[in-house]
Give the backbone structure.
Amino acid sequence: MFSNDVKGSEAAQPDETKAERTRRKVYDTAMTLFRERGFDETTMRDISQQAGMALGTAYYHFPSKEAIIASYYESTQYRHHAYVVEHLSGHKALQDRLKMVFHSKIEQVQGDRRLLGTIFRYTGDPQHPLSVLGEGTRSLQQQSVATISLALRGERFPREIAELLPVALWGLQMGALLYLLYDTSEGQTRTFRLMDQSLALTVQLLSVARKPLLAPIITPILRQVSGILGDARINLQPPIKQPPTKE
């Protein structure tokens, strides 16, 4: 596994304004209560009282508990992207780079399994702003794909593979996160083992798929898959933009 410093810090920054510090206090207080009491059991009034401020002040910065979780999503993605950028150069082989990306993602949220289990229920409602597969989080989905794509830089793949691979790996990452919620093994070792085995198999398949002799067979299949995804309007090609602002 990789070091726990991936979890980062949500401490105040020296150049924050008073409003930013207040917003951060609301956010930090809410996340502490969500983790201790649970998302459903915590109210905005609880958050404001624990933070020592008026209820209206808390609502001014976050109109709902869901808005706080949306900021949690953004903060998590920002810190994961920053971690990957910082540590990518230390891993030369493709499989090692992918392991770093996947391990660090899991380690970042590993302590929030209870909270994730609560908010992942919104996945079944595509219209909910917190659905991890819905339109409300589309930009974060794209940014997550962009982070995974960093591990693929410098690799030479046929165009069809290069287009589909980041999204396929993102799907694998989402599956690992879902499996994490049910993993009761100590330190969630089964989740990490499942990821490692899946990534090893992926890299093996990629080495085969890159062989020129197989291109006439593989290319038409990949083009068909791409067409199916396009017809289903599944497009997570990331926009060219910076990661979200850190909470």
Notes: Residues 1-9, 239-246 have pLDDT under 50 and may be disordered.
